[in-house]
Amino acid sequence: MAPVRTTTIGCGYLGATHAACMAELGYDVLGVEVDPDKLAMLREGRAPVYEAGLDEMLARHVASGRLRFTDSYEEAGAFGEIHFLCLGTPQRSDGLGADTSQVEYAVRTLAPHLTGSPLVVGKSTVPVGTAARMAALLTELTPSGVEAELAWNPEFLREAHGVDDTLRPDRLVFGVRSDAAEKRLREFYAPVIDLGVNGATPVVVTDYATAELVKVTANSFLATKISFINAVAEVCEVAGADVVALADAIGYDDRIGRKMLGAGVGFGGGCLPKDLRAFQHRAGELGVEDVMSLLGEVDAINAHQRERTVQIAKGMLGRSLRGARIAVWGAAFKPGTDDVRDSPALAIAGQLHLRGAQVTVFDPKAGRTARAAYPTMSYAEGAVEACRDADLVLHMTEWPEFREVDVDRVTEVVAHRRLLDGRNVLDLQAWRNAGWTARGLGRL
Ligand code: UGA
Hints:
Elements: E1 5-9, H1 13-24, E2 28-32, H2 36-43, H3 54-64, E3 67-70, H4 73-79, E4 82-85, H5 101-110, E5 119-122, H6 130-141, E6 149-152, H7 162-167, E7 172-175, H8 179-188, H9 190-194, E8 203-206, H10 208-239, H11 243-251, H12 272-285, H13 293-317, E9 325-329, H14 344-354, E10 358-362, H15 367-373, E11 378-379, H16 383-386, E12 392-395, H17 400-403, H18 407-413, E13 418-421, H19 428-433, E14 437-439
Parallel strand pairs: 1-2, 1-4, 2-3, 4-5, 5-6, 7-8, 9-10, 9-12, 10-11, 12-13, 13-14
The chain binds uridine-5'-diphosphate-glucuronic acid.
């Protein structure tokens, strides 16, 4: 039997990863990307973002011909039996909720070109109610004689683990309106279901609204865990306690779990902050804002970590920020990516720079994207080099190489031995042994 022909509409981070992984599973894949620069890169088998393993997988399947890219919706409509919508839903420029215009544009543009009995599957993170709207649009715009159906299948992949999370997810969620759609998704994802880490991957079959909400509530819950531990970190500081040991201890309770209890400078990226705000906004539109006011607190605690870090840096310097030389280790919102969207590291570096400090940033992968976002700061080519003549070193993104840095080499180049570990992963004692004043967040 010929492999299923599938399309990925939108080949940013999510779409490029999905497309490569579906080719890896043996499907014939056509990716649709309208940005000419991204399209050119993808056609050469290069990912538009840095993600371990993705370039290699894209290149392999582009070379074999199993994975192709186009900017033509017409071609996609003629080709695909199952179409995945992988478009971005960024925060709206007025700050109110998520902007679903790219998803809507894709449905409007694809629908008139659909052929056969296609299944259109939404993967984007959307405000609840969007899928029902898209299903109505699809019905309205699909040519007569074509039986198109919509399903919603949210994606839970984490940047830096995208390939593995796509091929071996914790669970699959199918928001469907018919048994036929469920059956097609089960068949399509059969290799993923079989690859489950502990037996078959669980599949939750549900309605559109639940599927949409699963995604935003999962991200909001993860954000809540982080803000909770960051609030506790401040209590630890004034009480003389250690938040890392505390998180270990409560994390052993498997009702709580240790993951996402890393206290530090807070969460960033293109998902957690945006989804939290969009969910709160949508709850307000639905008339239940009050019950979700908790999410506003989660966001506020997160924003507070950034200003708090700036104040701690100032306190450690013991002088005004103006003219102080500060080395910032890390620019990406987390290690393993070059994504600097809403990055705590860069936001803090930017604030220090704005308040007159001479900031030098080093990130192993995100130097280019950071420079594009904050061109007026200085950038170094290495961790030690960033620290030359520094009065203070800030560890803001926990790339493994910062843990492995040679303390003596850093000691030789700095003006003052002061270190703030904003991710609570460095061996502070080793730094103190070399004569440094070293501190974390929420630990002494
Ligand atoms: C997040 C979710 O974890 C994924 O499940 C989801 O699919 C994805 O959003 C999405 O919606 O697309 P991601 O944004 O890649 O994934 O990053 P996370 O690993 O969740 O980290 C988010 C932020 O929280 C980072 O800034 C990280 O440094 C911070 N974080 C994470 C902490 O401050 N403490 C922790 O213990 C863990």
